[in-house]
Amino acid sequence: MTYKLLFRVCFLLILVTPARAHDPHPPQLNVTFLAQPAAIVQNGSTRLYYEMVITNFNKNSYVLDAIEAKAGASQIRYEGQSLAAMIDRLGGRAQRESPASGIEGGRGIIVFLALDLGEGKAPSTIEHRLSVVDDNGEAHEIVLAPLRVSQESPIVIAPPLQGEWIAGDSANNRPDAAHRRAVLIDNGHAWLAQRYAIDWVQYQTVDGKRTTWKGPEDKNESYFCYNQPIYSVAAGRVVDASDGMAENVPHSGKYAVPIDFNNAAGNHVVVEIAPHRFVLYAHMRPGSLPVKTGDSVEVRQIIGRVGNTGSSSEPHLHMHIDDQPSFLAGNGVPYEFMNGEASGPVEANVSSPDAIHFGPIGPQKPFSKDYPAENAAVTFR
Fold first, then answer.
1. How far apart are CA 376 and CA 381, in angstroms?
2. The dihedral sign for the CA sequence 309, 312, 314, 315
3. Per-domain residue ranges for the chain?
């Protein structure tokens, strides 16, 4: 056989070689994402926080055995207990006789993903591969189309407070992360406005223990952060403001008024600081708001004082930035503080309705254009 004829035969074989056979029983799982991921620099490391929604359109059950995520040079595989800890079931109910990562027919789950990319830059896309086992024990792979990553840099802001504070429940991927898992539905859309929310509290050491108050536990005035001034983190325009809601009794297990979708923020201010960038300051003290809707504010202008109103169990400032002028119905976007000093992560139950307990707090180091680690101690000057 001549070289030319051999080449033609090989070329023909290449053309007619069939593609890899398609799964004859593809899992009837629909996979979507709540929002486009966007990178944030947290405690010096580039991170991606985002959410995968998996819905079972079949009557049969599946088990999500593993998720592989490839983001640039980083490739991470989640399986076993680490994967189970990332999952919330739609409706919040345990499913009958299912493993932690099981998806019964007609049900769904949300997988809360967090990729730590170290000091590298965010990639343009993330590739995902899901390993699934059906109720006949047959293994399947689901390869998703690349998920685009926003290339928009986080907005950089000034501090909302002065002095030393705990960045309570800042973005993290623990199963009990209250802000990170606060997915809510409004007008037929799933929102996660509080993806990067922080509950700012202050502590002191009293009788050898770190605590957020001294004196009667049920008095707001006993809490170290109560009535502290709140500063606008950027220049902008007030698009929503509400005052006059009564304060809650700390750690009483009750609210001063019934809480609903419209008043959970309590006395609050929303400031538009850029197109589709709204800063929400929540739970302010009654009568402390010097601004109203329509006012222009400057960076570091006082816009209220720390209180205990709305969905709040003790005095603190809840602050986050999202793309809608709403406390709950928006998509939380990353932001970074211009400068300050911060510790690494701290063990603390800041989202608890009871007294807050703190673990060891390490030394604080200067930072620039960074977002604090989980429950970090942060000093703003």
1. 16
2. negative
3. 29-148, 155-380
**Bridge partners, 51 (sequence order):** 112
- List beta partners, residue 148: 125
Q: Note whether 167 and 174 are within 8 A (CB).
A: no
Name the CATH architecture for the domain at 29-148. Sandwich (2.60)
State the DSSP code for 220. Answer: G
End-to-end C-alpha distance for the chain, whole angstroms: 83
CB atoms within 10 A of CB 59: 9
Instruction: State the Cα–Cα distance between residues 250 and 308, nearest whole angstrom.
Output: 8
Whether 29-148 shares its CATH topology with 155-380 is answered no
Nearest to 66 by CA among 81, 55, 56, 51: 81
How many CA atoms lie within 13 Å of 68's alpha carbon, on the beta-carbon side?
A: 12
Q: What is the pLDDT of residues 330-363, one digit of tens each?
A: 999 999 999 999 999 999 999 889 999 999 999 9
Query: CATH says 155-380 is which class?
Result: mainly beta
> What are the pLDDT digits (tens) for 87-139?
999 987 555 445 678 999 999 999 999 999 998 888 999 999 999 999 999 99
Q: Which of 285, 208, 206 is nearest to 246 (CA)?
A: 285
Tell me which residue of 124, 116, 191, 204 sits closest to 164, measured CA to CA. 204
Helix, strand, or coil here: 375? Answer: coil
Residue 72 has pLDDT above 70, yes or no: yes
The tokens of 311 are what?
């969905």
List, in sequence order, every residue forming a beta bridge with 47; answer none if it has no partner.
Answer: 40, 116
User: Residue 1: is its pLDDT beyond 80?
Assistant: no
- Give the Cβ contact number of residue 272 at 10 Å: 16
pTM, rounded to two decimals = 0.91
